[in-house]
């Protein structure tokens, strides 16, 4: 008979989990493995609420396994280190993002692209090397292999910095990889939510010209006056879209809902790049002729590798880039998920784990 989550490992842990596709979270007793020679034990202080968490909770991508403890935007403090750990000490402020393991020997791992390892182990809803399930940051503590732990810069606010572990690196990585971080580049950002607002902040720090593309006219003021975007286009306004045709070098599309790609392809210059970082649960239509006639590229991008994520955190600290967040207690999480589903957050929820998650 299989052991219960509370009996699998010697170290008792507590969090909030969903038990089924309703996605409703409630208190959950489980266990973590003991801190091994290469491991770092972490007391979780804050955890961001990612849109991916909502997809996983409701099994919208079709591979959720319950009970499920979400959370992959973790900031905490080191409580234990294994005998082989060299980068961290007890008391250090650290972070954990979307992955906690991999094969460490494939081409992607060797070239510091761990997020693309075919055996990459997700921070939650995955199987670890020992065959037990991984549970995320909506919990009091975690144990993570040193290689997958990140140093959290001293000057970076913990709550507002937590969303950088997924939302931040998800927009930073494709800007760097696809050459869209060069000063003077014109970048479109589709969607002004958790990912989109950070895309604007990082792009402006790179010296890039930024145009926000949104279905919501009411977001013009926050995009331009608050976040510093250079221009704003309402995607449902045909005249605005027509005026912006063939003006952009690249577009970062952060939208996770159904939407048309053809109007976005029309905004690109020849040889432009449309990079998808949102993850709609249903396939999108992709017209081919604009790609052929304009030699345009449509690509996807996940999170970055460990080294790049660390680089992103230092860059964010240097340029004072944080997410705009609403800090919530753990007991508010189900309401927060309902609001997240409706887009009613500006722009990221972060759970105050340390002060609101009673054992």
TrEMBL record:
<dbReference type="InterPro" id="IPR013149">
    <property type="entry name" value="ADH-like_C"/>
</dbReference>
<dbReference type="InterPro" id="IPR020843">
    <property type="entry name" value="ER"/>
</dbReference>
<dbReference type="InterPro" id="IPR047109">
    <property type="entry name" value="CAD-like"/>
</dbReference>
<dbReference type="Pfam" id="PF00107">
    <property type="entry name" value="ADH_zinc_N"/>
</dbReference>
<protein>
    <recommendedName>
        <fullName>cinnamyl-alcohol dehydrogenase</fullName>
        <ecNumber>1.1.1.195</ecNumber>
    </recommendedName>
</protein>
<dbReference type="GO" id="GO:0008270">
    <property type="term" value="F:zinc ion binding"/>
</dbReference>
<keyword id="KW-0479">Metal-binding</keyword>
<dbReference type="Pfam" id="PF08240">
    <property type="entry name" value="ADH_N"/>
</dbReference>
<dbReference type="InterPro" id="IPR002328">
    <property type="entry name" value="ADH_Zn_CS"/>
</dbReference>
<feature type="domain" description="Enoyl reductase (ER)">
    <location>
        <begin position="23"/>
        <end position="351"/>
    </location>
</feature>
<comment type="similarity">
    <text>Belongs to the zinc-containing alcohol dehydrogenase family.</text>
</comment>
<comment type="subunit">
    <text>Homodimer.</text>
</comment>
<keyword id="KW-0438">Lignin biosynthesis</keyword>
<comment type="pathway">
    <text>Aromatic compound metabolism; phenylpropanoid biosynthesis.</text>
</comment>
<dbReference type="GO" id="GO:0045551">
    <property type="term" value="F:cinnamyl-alcohol dehydrogenase activity"/>
</dbReference>
<dbReference type="InterPro" id="IPR036291">
    <property type="entry name" value="NAD(P)-bd_dom_sf"/>
</dbReference>
<dbReference type="InterPro" id="IPR013154">
    <property type="entry name" value="ADH-like_N"/>
</dbReference>
<dbReference type="InterPro" id="IPR011032">
    <property type="entry name" value="GroES-like_sf"/>
</dbReference>
<keyword id="KW-0560">Oxidoreductase</keyword>
<dbReference type="GO" id="GO:0009809">
    <property type="term" value="P:lignin biosynthetic process"/>
</dbReference>
<keyword id="KW-0862">Zinc</keyword>
